[in-house]
């Protein structure tokens, strides 16, 4: 008996061509199927130090993201982080993290299927997002490394500022809101068609 492997479809698969045709000055593309793990433990604890040694990073504090390593760490709460890694790393990373924390109280959960990631860049990116987001996106207020859980056009997102030079950002959005957010983004860019980048 042959068992077929199910085909994976990203939440924004049907949007790739549309997103690729946004006006000059804003670029958007989906980063589908990234490994995403929720990590909960006490900051500064031996478990936290073991995890930091394993990942080669320092778990960031409030409203910050550590994006330097292969595994990115996004602060999502006082004792909670979202770890983001390349596709297909879930099983190995979960096992490594559970070994690292040992018998200490901590939880590691695979939440990779919950969200997709939209990468935005371009000099209009912050301006477009400001149309639907109450957070002040001025670079002086939300510099590189900022990690904010907020609403964009009433859709819950985690916004990560990655690159100042190109206004590079990640929007992590629940899969069920992804198409809605893509529709909003395309509509919000309408007034920039014909603008020079």
Low-confidence stretches: none
> What would you give as the CATH superfamily of the largest domain?
Probable tRNA modification gtpase trme, domain 1
Number of distinct helices: 5
Q: What is the average per-residue confidence, as pLDDT, rounded to a whole number?
A: 93
Total separate domains: 2
Instruction: Give the proportion of residues in helices.
Output: 10-25%
Distance from N terminus to C terminus (CA atoms, Å) equals 56 Å
Q: Into which percentage range does the β-strand content fall?
A: 25-35%
Structural class: alpha+beta
Q: Give the radius of gyration.
A: 18 Å
Pfam families: SoxG
InterPro entries: SoxG (IPR007375), TrmE/GcvT-like (IPR027266)
Organism: Streptomyces peucetius
Protein name: Sarcosine oxidase subunit gamma
Can you describe what's shown?
By secondary structure, this protein is an alpha+beta fold. The chain folds into 2 domains: 13-32 and 114-191, Probable tRNA modification gtpase trme, domain 1 (Gyrase A, domain 2), CATH 3.30.1360.120; 35-110, Heterotetrameric sarcosine oxidase (Alpha-Beta Plaits, 2-Layer Sandwich), CATH 3.30.70.1520. The model has no long low-confidence stretch (mean pLDDT 93). The termini are far apart. The chain has helices at 16-20, 46-55, 90-101, 125-130, 175-188, and strands at 27-31, 35-40, 65-66, 72-77, 80-85, 107-110, 115-121, 147-152, 155-163, 168-174. Strand 8 (147-152) and strand 9 (155-163) form a beta hairpin. The strands form 2 sheets. The protein has a 5-stranded antiparallel β-sheet with strand order 1-7-10-9-8.
